[in-house]
Each structure stands twice: as structure tokens, then as C-alpha cells.
Design a protein that fits this description.
The complex is a heterodimer of chains A (557) and B (346). Chain A is mainly alpha-helical and 557 residues long. Chain A has 28 helices and no strands. Chain A starts with a helix and ends in an 11-residue tail after the last helix. Chain B is of the alpha/beta class and 346 residues long. Chain B has two domains: 149 residues, D-Maltodextrin-Binding Protein, domain 2; 131 residues, Periplasmic binding protein-like II (D-Maltodextrin-Binding Protein, domain 2). In chain B, 41% of the residues lie in helices and 16% in strands. In chain B, strands 1, 2, 3, 4, 5, 6, 7, 8, 9, 10 and 11 form an eleven-stranded mixed β-sheet that branches. In chain B, helix 3 packs parallel to helix 4 and helix 6 packs across helix 12. Chain B is globular. Classes of the chains: A mainly alpha (557), B alpha/beta (346). The interface between A and B is large, with 62 and 66 residues. Chain B: InterPro entries: Ferric-bd (IPR026045), SBP (IPR006059). Chain B: It holds the Pfam family SBP_bac_8. Chain B: One of its GO terms (molecular function) is ATP binding. Chain B: Belongs to the bacterial solute-binding protein 1 family.
Chain lengths: 557, 346
């Protein structure tokens, strides 16, 4: 008679208790975030109730509105597709192969996320616009008077993809790093080629990571306004903005935003379906040895070429344009040292607020991810879904909702730094939730169960077992939030303390009404510099953690 | 294991202290102290105007009167929405807008406070609210900007009707979401009638105009030669020239049509202010010859009080003859928006 240990264990009351009672501190933290997410929704519902139903119906049934709505969906789809096509091979090359300079590519392929859309799109136009752009000027001796217009679909898809593909790259990277290599090794032993192994074993395991990253890219593409505006692409957010800019009709804008949220809900549903219910952790012993890198051989040049191409367009091109503007300003006699010194307080504020946002948001994302993965239920799933609402909405909408609640209900906190950090949390927390979920899915629950059986409390289990194992997700999440907070604009303009400048607001200041491109380029370059430093620091943490992976034996300490 | 414990404890301590520092940080906004007299008071200004252009004036005001000025810079429309969402708890005392439409929106929602007659009378009635709820500080004229490499000065059209001709197809740029453009269309409707205005808008729309999101991007594109001619405000060009003296764009005032000066940058006092006296002093300063001179010479904007030299190289105010429209007349703005929407422009 064989004793099935698993069956015995599952019949103990411990496990059934664990399934229905998540630790209370997790629930409290998650509830706080849920409250935060609810605020923009409540605001939108309150505002939307002020519209006349007839004008609203008239507006959304206009052929133009409907066309614009589907334009947005199409744009988001193509951006996501293109981003996945770029990010997945890149991630694989960086993590699994012997690509030369992997650490370098790690950093430079993440950095495009640090480039704000309003800078990136502007740079793309200065580089590849139909006339007077760098490419056209280069080709003019060959008789090229005008390039094909980059405006419209092409421009918006290219510009959005170039600066948001790192979302998928980061989630896939951390998933690859946490994957148990045993399955791939088994596949090779069974006779499959590396190519087949990739398609049949690796890629399916990457599904949650790809889905999480694609979710972020599609939501980002939907709510972005800067790129479609510059590229003359009429997106649905454009219609919302028109309400603010032209008719000053906040009610109509709120009603339209609710339509956008319905769309976000639909996409969330799609992503949920895309995740299979399969287990992504290994059921055997967790093998933590370093996986041998796949030698590229004669493919090395092709791989390098691919990396160089992507980096050229997503990083070198905007940098080049920024330096060009800087150079132009220097020629006219502007003093770079003076400009940099002027920007230093803004740089400090940027680092401070984004750093705080990254720490606090990741902290609060942990309970949500843990609840969603370890204690799946309707409630926790809803909680995780609603965290995406802030991310899928235009920044101005979230900002105004916090203005409404802040000024009227917590005036002592209004326009103080904590409220700004809270705004960043509401806007960006799903980035951390996604990466944490991805990492957590790769941790076998039996490790945590063993810890509980050995006598650890839930809090100790969290600290000693779960957290160390989800470090890749924590790191990716914190980095994402830092990079996106530092370039955030609408919430910073409205909710930061008066006089609190950040590099993002300085860039905006220099280009909105005034024409100080040199100033803008200095601020943008400083922002990139700070982001690069942060990425380097955070990625170096990754390396140290890899060398100090916890093993089962350490649980007995 | 122990070292990791120490590190995580330190990290937790840092995080906690960072949070508590952030919560305890003194913010630099208003501290409503003085109710009598204006020295020592603090004014909170929400400014849709850029810091480069208006900041020096705020500082000079602060230096001369001793009234502290705390400014929140942002987008004109977003700041208006913010003031409306804040309600009576708004910290704002003054709202400085880039166009009259935003000021009118605040007036319509009842968030403005009447400005004293003495201040209102310094400015022509065309450039302030009829109900005295806001006042223009400087004017901006509509103008053609054109690329000098692509068009010579005699090729530049003289009238807005010329650019609806087929030969200009695809060569004209505009920024229809811009408040000044909408005011221009409103003036067209008032001056030439609804039919003519609709005719012009539809003819332009059929002529493949290149759409830009604001005047800055439009003029920047003009510099690259992406379009030959643009409909914009007068002062952008001079800022571009300051960054790059060889900027290949020049200006031309269309004649004989709807007039040139169409929009104003102006100020409204927010109804929830607790510093009305300081607010009046602020407006008085902005309308003073010193400030108006700075706007004209430094920013190339049109001064709105009498006796100030217009910006260099611009047509004097006397020759500009805008029609008599109330810039904040919202029925007018709504009508314009309706026209632009139905023509497919917006």
C-alpha cells in the first residue's frame, strides 16, 4: 500500500484553512489599493451622471466617434503585436543565448521605456518626417524631396511600439530567468532541436508573461495621447481630450472615459483567457542551477544586427535628435552648465518622487499579486483586475479624480507629495502586479506549504520563502514604476506641491508655449541619464541575487 | 541569512522614514495670513502661460509689492478643469489663461469674482468680459507664417479665401484644437455670417489641410518645410528665431478679411479666494506700463493698455481692426465648435 503524501497533506485542515483565509495583513494592504482604484471610477460615475443622455448618445453614435473607437482598438492591436515580435526574441537572446554584450543589451533595450512619448514622437518626426527631417535632408542630394508621410497609422504604431516594447521585454525576461530549466533539458534529451524546444516548451511557459506584458502595452497604447496627437492619429483619447480642451465639458469627458474603461475591461477579459490554468512551477525538486547558454554560432551576427537595429531606432534616434537640439542651442550661445544647474532641483525631485513611488507601489503590489495567485477567488481576481483601471485611463482623468477627492475630502493632504505618490500608485501599480504575478506563478506553492508545516507563520513564510523567490518580479516591477513615474506628466502638473518641478514638467514647460528646445533637450537628456543609472543599479541587484538563490536547505535555519 | 536580515531591516527603515518624511514635508502653498493690507500676503496663481514668458513678471510683482506669488504652471484647459473640480476648496486665487474660451468657461460656471471698474476700464471693452468677470492682459494676433525657402514674399496669399484654392492643396497647416483658431472662426462667423464661415471651413477641410496639435508644432513643421504656410499666432515665430536666427520662416498679415487680433491672454479672480486685495494689486501690476512694455518687447505680444509701443516688427494696434465680438460669448464658441465638428475638422 503506497501512501500518497500529497493526498494526506491535502486532507489536513491546514491546507483547507489556508485556501479560505489569506493572511490578514495582505488583505488590509490590498484593500487600501482597492480603495485607491475605486476613486477614479467613483469620480467618473459621479461626473458622468451630469451629462444629458441625448447629447451623449448623439456623440457616441456619430460615425466619426465610432470610427475613432475602432481606430484605437486597431492601433492597440498592431502595437501589441509588433512589440511582442520585437520583445520576445530580444528577451530570449539576452537571457538564454551567448549573445555578446548581454549586460549592455539588457540595459539599452529597457531604456526606451524612459523616453516620454512627447519627446520620442517629436524626435521621430524630426528624424523621419516628410520634409526637412534628418533622413530627408540626407537623401536630398539623391533627389528625394519628400519622404512618404509618417503621419497617421504608420507613425503612431512605430512611435508607440518603439517606446513601449520594453514592457513585454521585461516580463518575458523575468519569466525566462525564473523558469525551471529541467523541462527544456528533458525536451532536448528526448531529441527535440533547440528550435522545437523553444516553440513547444519555452514559449508556452512564457504565456502568462507575454500576456501580462501585452496587457500593459495595449492599455498604454489606448490611453496615450501624446503620440496620436503628434502623429495626427485620431484615437479615442483624442475625443476625450477634445471635451476638456474645447467644450470644457468634464461630464462628457467622464462619460467617454467610462466607455474606455469598458474597453479596458474587455481587454482584461481577453488577457485572462490567454493565461492558461496550467501550473508554471516545477512539481519536482526545484533545480536552481544556471542553465547553459545556447551558442549562437553563425547566427550571432544576425542576432546582433537585430539588437542594433532596434536600439538604433528606439534609443539612438531620440538621443541623436536631443543632442542635435542641444548643439543648436550651444551654437546660439546658450550655456550648457547654466542649463544643467538650473535643472538640478528638478532632477532631484524626479528621483525622489519616482523612487518613492517605485518602493511604495511595489510594496502594495505584492499583496495583490500574492492574493491573486495563492488565494484565487472571485474577490481576489476582481481586485487584481481593478488595479489595471488606473493604468488604462488617460492620466488627466485619474488626476482630476484625485483633485476632486483631494480638494474636497482630504484638503490637508491635497497638493502634498503623498498625494502625488498615491497618484503614481494608482496609475502604475499594475505594472508591478503583472511582473510579480509572473514571478509568483513560477514558485511552487509546495515550498510555502512546507514552510508552514515546518512552523513558520504566514508573515515569516512571506519574508523568508516567497519574497526571495519572486525577486526578479519585484525588481522588474520597481524598475518599471520608476521609469514610468519619472516621465509622467499630467498628474505631476496638477497634484505636485506648488513649486515642485520635475524633469518631465521642465520638458513640458520648455515646449508647450515657449520654444526652448535646448532647455527641453537638456532636461530630457538628464532624465535619460537618471533612468540609465537607475536601470544599471537595479539590474546589478539582479546579478547578485542570482548568485545567492535560496535553497530548500535554508528553510531549516 | 543574518546579513540579509540586516539589509532588509535597513531597507524597511529607509522606506518607513521616506514615507514619514514625505508625509511630514511642509508644502510651499498658501498660508492665508494677512486679511488687511497686502504685504505679507500670498497669492496662488494657476497659470496656463509658460514660466519662461510670464515668470519674470511674477517675480517683479513679488519684489515690488512684497506679496508672495506661488505659481502652478500647467495647461490652460486642464487648470480650468482643476479649478472646477476643486470647487470652493480651490487654493487658487488667480487664473491666468492663454485664451478667452477658458476664462469664459470659468465665468459660466460661476467661479469668477468681479473685477473692480477702475481696473476694467484700463482695457478696451472688446478685450474683457462684458460682465466684468475677467480681463485681457495681452493680445495675440492671427497671422500667416510661411517658409521662406518655399515661398517668396510676393507668392504669399493675401487673404484666407485664397488658401482655399486647389493650388494650395496639402500645403497649408493649421491647429484646429487651439483656442485662438476657434476664436478666429467665431470672428469669421460674426463678421461674415454663418454661411460664409461654413463655406470657408468646408473649403479648407476639402483642401487637405495638415493638422498639428498646437502652434508650436505647426511652426516647427513650417521650419522643416513640411507645409508651406500656416495659420497661427504672431509671437511664436520670434521665439523660434531666438533659438535659431536662421529659422526659414517669416510672417504676413492677411488684409481685408476678418481682423488680425483675435485672442487674448487674460486673468480671472477665483471666487473662493481669500486674498481679493492682493488679487486686485496683481491685475493692476499686469496692466501697468512696465509690465505691458515687457510683454510687448520681450514676448512680442500686443499690449492692451494705451500708449505702449507694439512689439517690434508687428503691425500697430491701430491698424488692426477686430470685429466687435465678446470673446467669452460661449454661445458663439459652442456654435463654432458645432460648425467645426459638422465639417469634420474636430
Amino acid at each position: 500500500m503506497t501512501i500518497n503524501l500529497k493526498q494526506t497533506l491535502s486532507s489536513t485542515s491546514y491546507l483547507s484553512t489556508r485556501r479560505s483565509h489569506p493572511p490578514i495583513f495582505l488583505v488590509i494592504m490590498a484593500a487600501i489599493v482597492a480603495l485607491g482604484m475605486a476613486l477614479p471610477l467613483v469620480y467618473l460615475v459621479i461626473r458622468a451622471m451630469g451629462i444629458g443622455l441625448a447629447p451623449f448618445i448623439a456623440l457616441i453614435s456619430r460615425p466619426r466617434t465610432i470610427q475613432v473607437f475602432f481606430n484605437s482598438i486597431g492601433m492597440a492591436f498592431f502595437v501589441t503585436l509588433l512589440s511582442a515580435l520585437i520583445a520576445i526574441p530580444l528577451a530570449f537572446l539576452i537571457v538564454r543565448t551567448n549573445l555578446p554584450g548581454r549586460r549592455f543589451w539588457s540595459v539599452v533595450t529597457t531604456l526606451p521605456l524612459a523616453i516620454p512619448t512627447y519627446v520620442g514622437s517629436f524626435a521621430l518626426l524630426a528624424f523621419a518626417g516628410p520634409r526637412g527631417s534628418m533622413i530627408q535632408i540626407l537623401l536630398e542630394p539623391f533627389g528625394v524631396q519628400r519622404l512618404p508621410s509618417i503621419y497617421g497609422w504608420a507613425g503612431v504604431i512605430i512611435a508607440t511600439t518603439l517606446f513601449s516594447y520594453p514592457y513585454i521585454l521585461l516580463t518575458v525576461r523575468s519569466s525566462l530567468q525564473g523558469m525551471d530549466p529541467a523541462m527544456e533539458e528533458v525536451s532536448r534529451v528526448l531529441g527535440y532541436t533547440p528550435y522545437q524546444t523553444f516553440w513547444r516548451v519555452t514559449l508556452p511557459q512564457l504565456r502568462p508573461a507575454i500576456a501580462a506584458g501585452s496587457l500593459l502595452v495595449s492599455l498604454y497604447a489606448l490611453q496615450d495621447f501624446g503620440t496620436p496627437a503628434l502623429m495626427r492619429f485620431e484615437s479615442f483619447t483624442y475625443v476625450i481630450f477634445l471635451q476638456y480642451r474645447t467644450s470644457f465639458d468634464r461630464s462628457m469627458a467622464a462619460a467617454l472615459s467610462l466607455v474606455l474603461i469598458a474597453l479596458v475591461g474587455l481587454i482584461l477579459l481577453l488577457e485572462y483567457r490567454a493565461r492558461s490554468r496550467a501550473a508554471y512551477y516545477s512539481r519536482g525538486s526545484a533545480s536552481q542551477h544556471q542553465q547553459p547558454l545556447i551558442p549562437l554560432g553563425r547566427w550571432t551576427w544576425l542576432a546582433l544586427g537585430f539588437c542594433i537595429l532596434i536600439t538604433l531606432f528606439s534609443l539612438v534616434m531620440p538621443l541623436g535628435v536631443l543632442f542635435f537640439w542641444l548643439g543648436r542651442g550651444l551654437r546660439v550661445g546658450q550655456n550648457p552648465i547654466e542649463l544643467i544647474t538650473m535643472m538640478l532641483p528638478a532632477a532631484y525631485n524626479s528621483i525622489y518622487s519616482s523612487g518613492l513611488a517605485a518602493i511604495i507601489s511595489t510594496l502594495f503590489a505584492l499583496p495583490i499579486a500574492i492574493l491573486a495567485v495563492r488565494f484565487p477567488s472571485r474577490l481576489t481576481a476582481t481586485l487584481e483586475r481593478t488595479s489595471y483601471i488606473g493604468f488604462g485611463m488617460p492620466g488627466i482623468v485619474v488626476s482630476l479624480s484625485l483633485v476632486f477627492f483631494g480638494a474636497n475630502y482630504v484638503p490637508w493632504l491635497y497638493q502634498q507629495l503623498p498625494m502625488l505618490i498615491f497618484a503614481y500608485l494608482v496609475l502604475f501599480i499594475p505594472q508591478a502586479v503583472g511582473t510579480l504575478r509572473g514571478s509568483l506563478l513560477q514558485v511552487s506553492p509546495s515550498l510555502e506549504e512546507s514552510a508552514r508545516i515546518l512552523g513558520r507563520t504566514p508573515w515569516q513564510t512571506l519574508r523568508q520563502v516567497t519574497l526571495p523567490l519572486v525577486r526578479p518580479g519585484v525588481i522588474s516591477g520597481a524598475m518599471l514604476i520608476f521609469l514610468t513615474s519619472i516621465k509622467e506628466l499630467p498628474a505631476t502638473l496638477l497634484l505636485s506641491p506648488i513649486g515642485f518641478r520635475t524633469l518631465a514638467t521642465q520638458i513640458w514647460q520648455a515646449t508647450a508655449e515657449s520654444v526652448a528646445f535646448t532647455q527641453a533637450s537638456v532636461a530630457a537628456l538628464m532624465m535619460l541619464f537618471v533612468s540609465t543609472l537607475a536601470t544599471l543599479i537595479i539590474l546589478s541587484q539582479e546579478r547578485r541575487i542570482k548568485n545567492a538563490q535560496p535553497s530548500l536547505t535554508q528553510l531549516e535555519d | 541569512m543574518k546579513r540579509r536580515k540586516v539589509i532588509s531591516l535597513i531597507g524597511l527603515a529607509i522606506a518607513t522614514s521616506a514615507i514619514s518624511i514625505a508625509c511630514g514635508q511642509q508644502q510651499t502653498t498658501i498660508d492665508p495670513t494677512a486679511t488687511n493690507g497686502t504685504t505679507g500676503a500670498t497669492l496662488v496663481v494657476y497659470s496656463g502661460r509658460a514660466e519662461d514668458l510670464i515668470g519674470p513678471m511674477f517675480q517683479r510683482f513679488q519684489a515690488e509689492t512684497g506679496i508672495q506669488v506661488n505659481v502652478r504652471y500647467g495647461d490652460t484647459a486642464e487648470l480650468a478643469a482643476t479649478i472646477l473640480e476643486e470647487g470652493q476648496n480651490s487654493p487658487a486665487d488667480i487664473y491666468f489663461a492663454q485664451d478667452a474660451g477658458a476664462l469664459g468657461a470659468l465665468q459660466r460656471e460661476g467661479r469668477t469674482r468681479p473685477i473692480p471698474e477702475t481696473l476694467l476700464n484700463q482695457v478696451d471693452p472688446r478685450f474683457r468680459s462684458r460682465e466684468g468677470q475677467w480681463i485681457g492682459i495681452t493680445g495675440r494676433a492671427r497671422v500667416f507664417n510661411y517658409n521662406t525657402d518655399l515661398l517668396s514674399s510676393d507668392q504669399v496669399p493675401n487673404s484666407i479665401w485664397e488658401i482655399t484654392q486647389p493650388e494650395w492643396s496639402g500645403r497649408i497647416g493649421w491647429a484646429p484644437t487651439n483656442g485662438s483658431f476657434q476664436s478666429f472662426v467665431t470672428a469669421l462667423r460674426k463678421h461674415e455670417g454663418e454661411e460664409r464661415a461654413r463655406e470657408w471651413v468646408e473649403a479648407m477641410q476639402a483642401n487637405n489641410p495638415q493638422v498639428y496639435r498646437n502652434n508650436t508644432t505647426l511652426v516647427e513643421a513650417l521650419g522643416r518645410g513640411e507645409v508651406d504656410l500656416g495659420l497661427t499666432n504672431n509671437y511664436y515665430l520670434f521665439r523660434f528665431k531666438a533659438e535659431d536666427p536662421n529659422f526659414p520662416v517669416s510672417y504676413h498679415y492677411p488684409t481685408g478679411d476678418v481682423g488680425s487680433m483675435i485672442n487674448i491672454a487674460g486673468v480671472a479672480i477665483i471666487d473662493s479666494t481669500d486674498q481679493p486685495e492682493a488679487a486686485y494689486a496683481f491685475i493692476e501690476f499686469m496692466l501697468s506700463p512696465e509690465a505691458q512694455q515687457h510683454f510687448a518687447q520681450g514676448n512680442s505680444e500686443y499690449p492692451l493698455i494705451d500708449g505702449i509701443q507694439p512689439p517690434d516688427g508687428q503691425i500697430p494696434i491701430a491698424q488692426i481692426n477686430p470685429p466687435d465680438i465678446d470673446l467669452s460669448d460661449l454661445e458663439d464658441l459652442e456654435g463654432t465648435l458645432e460648425l467645426l465638428r459638422s465639417a469634420g475638422v474636430l
